[in-house]
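ARCHIVE CARD
Drawer: 12
Card no.: 0347
Subject: one protein chain, sequence and derived structure
Cross-reference: see card 0346
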Amino acid sequence: MKVFFSQILGLLLFVAVLPCKALINYTFVHEEHLDCEWTVSGPTLYVTKGETVIVDVYNKGSYNITIHWHGVKMPRYPWSDGPEYVTQCPIQPGGKFSQKIIFSSEEGTLWWHAHSDWSRATVHGAIIIYPKKGTSYPFPKPNAEVPILLGEWWKKDIMEVLTEFVQNGGDPQISDAFTINGQPGDLYPCSKPETFKLLVDYGKMYLLRIINVDMQDILFFSIAKHQITVVGTDASYTKPLARDYIAISLDKQLIIFKRKGVEYDNTTTTAVVQYNGNYTPSPPSLPFLPGYNDTNASVNFTGSLRSLANKDHPVDVPTNITTQLIFTVSMNTFPCPLNRTCKGPNGTMLAASVNNISFVNPKIDVLEAYYYQINGVFGTRFPSFPPYVFNFTAEYLSLLLELPNRWTEVKVLDYDSVVELVFQGTNLVAGTDHPIHLHGYSFYVVGWGFGNFNKDKDPLGYNLVDPPLQNTIAVPKNGWTTVRFKAHNPGVWLMHCHIERHFTWGMDMVQLLPPPPDMPPC
């Protein structure tokens, strides 16, 4: 099998699970690929809840690299979290970095991926976290478990895609295909013989650990003539939710447990569920899927998720809020530099912001600058509320509102503060969905809606009984989402949109949580 990363000439991971377990070696080698060769994901990490894993990352490629452990809270240890220029400088070609990955309350499905430039398009893999010994799943044991990675693929090198749109200020080239476990499916002639097939037995139950590793989109997933039941999301269990399709902004795990269109183009990829046995096979049926940009279908699914909230898996929804935050998430534009032609709206360069700040990466990482008290690397004036208040979701907005500030500002939170954070989408440039991911934490999604958030009316509809516990939530197009969490994990933690072009354009910010005042000295 060829394992290649189109922007990395070689990445070696040597994984050791502590304590007293044998060293497991992995070698990733880049190979030049032809039009009909597809991307294969990296190794799956298998751990038990509460374990610590050591990963030695060797960069044998020609580009800088970092690795992030998506959804792992890393209690009091941000040093291995991975985002470049936030918790570390990137691993340069020929370099090595040993990362200590601390698992705590997570149980279920997460993933790891590169967190430098657009490397994660091909540098990624699943993380499967099993229950502790002596405990079990809160649902009947499945007959089999299968990781399903939903990705996308470009014919050209992903670094060329990045360089082109950064230079011209427009949208990036769309991918040439979506993939399921590395294969675009039988709708693509050169992939048809290698379409991913899941072999199943009638009447048995299968746990699919589904991860959206796509760079640009919230994806829908369905299986023809079957109903699927979601039992967990973001390494946290949920009440069983039966649906004909699911929306995936990043990761879910679900069970297919019983039997029960749109036009198919390059917004669609396929795989095959094939039953074992003696029968005459028929052409695979195609399932119903919503349109790829159907915001209502997406939020109706995610808005139906509920935490399990039982004795073995209780919830602890914060109620006594001490820190109130409202962050606008916006598309923006910058003027085109002199002597250049830009492909953004009206000849501008596309940008993105949080509270009108388009984040600028510093030259050294924020964590190191904070730890060593290096001045001039970042500021601490990130606003708690939007600096400009207007009708955020109006159909027509002044072009003057589209220009953000380019700053490196962080938001400092008090240790043990109880935070309520409202993400408000705007219609600047073009309203769109924003899957927002917070490093170092999981949060309860207590409310969402369309239009402008109303601080007097909307909180009356919050779910404070069994809201889902997540690390990523999609803010709907021209809508809002409210999350709550307790700030009890000291460190420097990135928050950003997981649509990669928005992240590249500056839709990210950093939250800094100093250690508690009674932290004992070394």
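Annotation on reverse: Residues 1-38, 257-264 have pLDDT under 50 and may be disordered. Helices lie at 158-168, 295-302, 366-371, 500-504.
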